[in-house]
Amino acid sequence: MELSESVQKGLQSLADPTLSDLKTFPVLIELAFRSLLTAHADCSVLDQPELKRIDQKLLKHCHTAATTCILEGVKQNVDKSTISSCLEDFRFDAERTDVFYITYQVMTTLLWRCPPHINDVSWRLEYPIKNGHVHKVNEPSYLIFIKQNTNNGGSSEEVNFSCTMEQLQDLVGKMKDAAKSLEKAMQL
């Protein structure tokens, strides 16, 4: 992984056992990951009691270096050997490297686990006059075609169904309610 000189210095500081012991190091690494996974800054590194004895400027620098390293790793989809050799270059001992990699595995699993999401929707209005039993129907129905990604863009599947006008209006209303709920949840 190619990292700037500033990030390299931050990682070297993070590897220093005089800066953080094996109790504070996992806290700092977990906070770096959590800051990337949450939309809010509720996991400030400066507010952690375990990290109060560390100089604030150095703490911020180490936190930034750790998050940059994590982002580069995720961007390049690195494996354990790549992360290990990179961290060893910055003088991380085996225990710190293991803590970093285990946290990396757990958090990137959380990061990439997302539910299926809709890519495309199309519809068609049908107006059957008679059904298969030669009875008059004269009632419109809507054929709905939904394409969704199932595993992070890897594969997609189609969901098709038919509904009446009332059912379609109910579906649209529920989708609007769900969108509003998501917006509220994102603002919290």
Automatic annotation (TrEMBL):
Residues 117-186 form the COMM domain. Pfam families: COMM_domain (PF07258), COMM_HN (PF21672). PROSITE patterns: COMM. It comes from Hucho hucho (huchen). GO terms for biological process: sodium ion transport. PANTHER family: COMM DOMAIN-CONTAINING PROTEIN 3 (PTHR31159:SF1). This is COMM domain-containing protein 3. Belongs to the COMM domain-containing protein 3 family. Transmembrane segments: none annotated. It comes from the Eukaryota. InterPro entries: COMM, COMMD3.
